[in-house]
Design goal:
Layout: E1 2-9, E2 15-35, E3 43-66, E4 69-92, E5 95-122, E6 125-147, E7 153-156, E8 162-181, E9 184-201, E10 205-220, E11 227-236, E12 247-249, E13 254-256, E14 266-278, E15 282-294, E16 297-301, E17 307-311, E18 315-327, E19 336-350, E20 357-358, E21 366-376, E22 379-388, E23 391-394, E24 398-404, E25 408-418, E26 421-427, E27 435-441
Antiparallel strand pairs: 1-2, 2-3, 3-4, 4-5, 5-6, 6-7, 6-8, 8-9, 9-10, 10-11, 11-14, 12-13, 14-15, 15-18, 16-17, 18-19, 19-20, 19-21, 21-22, 22-25, 23-24, 24-27, 25-26
Length: 450
Amino acid sequence: YVSGSWAFAGGENREAHLNFRGSLDQFDLDQTNDVFPFGGIVRDDILSQSFRGHQYEFGGDVTRPFAGGGIKLIGLLRRRHGDQFDTSYNRIASDIVGGFEQGNLSDRDESVVRLLWSRGNWGGWSVETGIEGALNRLDSNVDLTLLDRAGVRTRVDLPVDQAVVTEYRGESYVNAGRALAANLRMDLGLTYELSRLTVSGDTRAERTLGFIKPKASFDWRPGPIWHLQFSAARTVAQLDFGDFISSADLASERVNGGNADLRPQRAWELLATIERPILGDGLAKVELGYNRISQLQDRVPIPEGFDAPGNLGTGTQAFVRATLDAPLGRMGIKGGRLTMHGTVQDTSVIDPYTLRPRQFSDARRWAWDASVRQDIGKFAYGVSLFFGGRQTGYRRDELDTRDSVDPFVTAFAEYRPTRQTTITLGLDNAGDVIANRNRLFFDSDGGIDY
């Protein structure tokens, strides 16, 4: 991994930055599993995964004074190449009796340019406006092969396993804010996004999408301690182009279908926040949120007999989040700090199979984490815990549920010999926690009853 940056400041509102990042990536995994088929011969299957890739990124910006404010040009160029090869072999006494092989070549390109102008005081308003253009592209080739007992290889044709997904996106926006009183501020914004999406290869699809995204927020400080905020916004999610491509998950022995007709989900999001300082520079914060989501991105059946990322109807999400960040000096732990987060949420959408309400796929009903850190001169150490409710993926013929019975614990020790150098030792899963996965299968779509 290499990175570099360059900066230049030429006076008020005159500056430039240039950044570069690049990496070579490699990953290899070999895993042997004992399999006990009901009424069959015990197998010692082996799963191998190998990944080779590289990526690089160029970015920069230039700022100049203009019309009483500053005008900025921002550019970003990102390229990623991946070459993955997975094998899953069924073996009896170490002899291969069948299995699968899968190769996946992919190239992901992203190019973005943004021009914006901002002014801090324009008749009492702070204003920012700009335009952005982006080109995103994924070229993916998935090759799945079946291996029989005789060693004969047969290619498995998946829906949308060789495709090119391209998006041209343009956006214009304006944000403005001002103080309504000494302790009350208002911020408003309006964005228009227009995109052209095309899919070519195994299937062809194209569509043009346009969205208007307003937002408003109010920031109120009724006294020297309390701070309240309220915001409402229309949001549109960014699509993951990998959801357009089919592939096999050999570790789970299932096919993840691709969906060329996938559309971005959009939502009205309401959020209220109340916070106050504690113990000096600490903070206690509670957030209440409600999101009404249309075209919810979840999993849907496709004609080829699989399920794939797709759009359900309208879903809702209500949540409460709490944050506690407290220094521990007053408790006798000099340089110590405690940070805690907790979330409780409820999600609901109509399932496409049962036509009954259910949770979003892989949505936890609750989660919490806590971490303690202490800095002592050039040394630091800390411990973190995470504990969350179960997650269930709702698929065409399966409920895939993951949970654990104990908190996941990580720890670290750190030494900073100079300001430019930090040496860190980390330990993951310090409690040797076992994660549980329960997969419940059904004979057909109609047999599912949540």
